[in-house]
Amino acid sequence: MERNESGAPPFLFGRRIVLGVTGGVAAYKAAELVRRLVKAGAQVDVVLTPGGAHFVTPTTFQALSGRPVWCDPWDERRANAMAHIDLTRGADLLLVAPCTADAMARFAQGQADDLLATLALARACPMAVAPAMNRQMWLHPATQRNRERLVADGVLVWGPAEGEQACGETGPGRMIEPEEIVARLEAFFAPKWFSGHAVLVTAGPTYEPLDPVRVLTNLSSGKMGYALAQAFAQAGAAVTLVSGPVSLPTPLGVTRVDVTTAEQMRAAVLERVPGHRIFASVAAVADYRPARVSPQKIKKGAERLTLELVRNPDILAEVAALPEPPWCIGFAAESENLDEYAERKRREKGLQLVVGNLVQEAMGRDENTVVLYDENGRIPLPTADKVQVAWGIVRHVAQRLGLIDTAVERGDL
Ligand code: CTP
């Protein structure tokens, strides 16, 4: 698999995906899905059922995938008329999105009455479906039977989501969004270095209240912590994310605990940390909080107002000093002297790893430039988006903990 320098494998790069599109309104979302997959470097061969072709034309998919689109089992573009076998030969995954109730029924029965159903039967690769249908069709015992049958046959069933439907009703049956399908595909292809391990992550800022309407806080967006939680989860870990106030969606498969103040974050972390192999303290915890919280809104009056602040507990230092501490990762956001301060933090707090960066290069941005500091010295990672940087960190930790099977990684096995 190709890798960029940060050690983050682009999990969809070079992957061969056969995408079946069946006849549901959500077929229009499959166009967006193809665009995202191609952007991520995947090769996408689209197979349209006759129903799917009613909703979106082959031309749309051909333009987006840059490859021929297949509809007919007797397509003469395959010299040996073996499209049903050729297409999934060498494919990494057969994905059906949207997957109608009828398609689910035919896959569950093992029918082979159109090109897609035949491919599903003749494949050697894994298969995933993203159901999309009216809520009553989804809840019907026949569809539920088919879902169970498919799961028992090893098919991954992704969704459906709940919400407003094209028919005007509300309930389960919407196809999960293309973005979530891509996240699931990335998780599917990611190496499972951390399976069987639990990881606790903190992220975001804390709010330290002054009065009922005012807080002291900082500019942390939470993006780095969320990206790290997601990368650990995709790498197979059971991840708990203790999050300060941010406006970010919870990464797929991550258990999120929302807190507001540093003291709440400390309590949430100390309660959960036993049993966790790794603690990644990415939160920008406020070092100080107001000594007094006014029960009423503070009214303006004097020309000057002095706030008295008291120190907050250092959550990371406390966790690292536990009798049986997890493997601790700290973050050092500095505005100068990065090497000196980051290394000092690692030693003084007794951490296994410190991820250092210069604040002016990270705060609120999607990209980050970090340096890793551990007992072996400093390892700079290349500037990359926070998702790639997160994978660079995850890979480094997996190496340090001896979780990467280098022979498998090289492709020898
Ligand atoms: N941290 C923490 N609890 C605090 C403060 C920080 O857990 N009360 C964690 C952060 O999540 C981060 C690391 O400690 O992993 C940052 O170290 P720290 O020395 O506290 O950094 P700053 O707060 O930036 O400290 P300084 O102002 O001394 O640079």
From TrEMBL:
Protein name: Coenzyme A biosynthesis bifunctional protein CoaBC
Chain segments carrying region Phosphopantothenate--cysteine ligase: 199-413
Location of the region described as Phosphopantothenoylcysteine decarboxylase in the Swiss-Prot/TrEMBL record: 1-198
Catalytic activity from the UniProt record: (R)-4'-phosphopantothenate + L-cysteine + CTP = N-[(R)-4-phosphopantothenoyl]-L-cysteine + CMP + diphosphate + H(+); N-[(R)-4-phosphopantothenoyl]-L-cysteine + H(+) = (R)-4'-phosphopantetheine + CO2
Superkingdom in the source lineage: Bacteria
Function: Catalyzes two steps in the biosynthesis of coenzyme A. In the first step cysteine is conjugated to 4'-phosphopantothenate to form 4-phosphopantothenoylcysteine, in the latter compound is decarboxylated to form 4'-phosphopantotheine. Catalyzes two sequential steps in the biosynthesis of coenzyme A. In the first step cysteine is conjugated to 4'-phosphopantothenate to form 4-phosphopantothenoylcysteine. In the second step the latter compound is decarboxylated to form 4'-phosphopantotheine.
EC number(s) from the headed UniProt entry: 4.1.1.36, 6.3.2.5
Ranges where the DNA/pantothenate metabolism flavoprotein C-terminal domain occurs: 195-399
Organism field: Tepidiphilus thermophilus
Needed cofactors: FMN; Mg(2+)
Active site: 167
Residues given in the record as CTP binding sites: 287, 297, 313-316, 331, 345, 349
Family, per entry: In the N-terminal section; belongs to the HFCD (homo-oligomeric flavin containing Cys decarboxylase) superfamily.
A GO-annotated cellular component: phosphopantothenoylcysteine decarboxylase complex
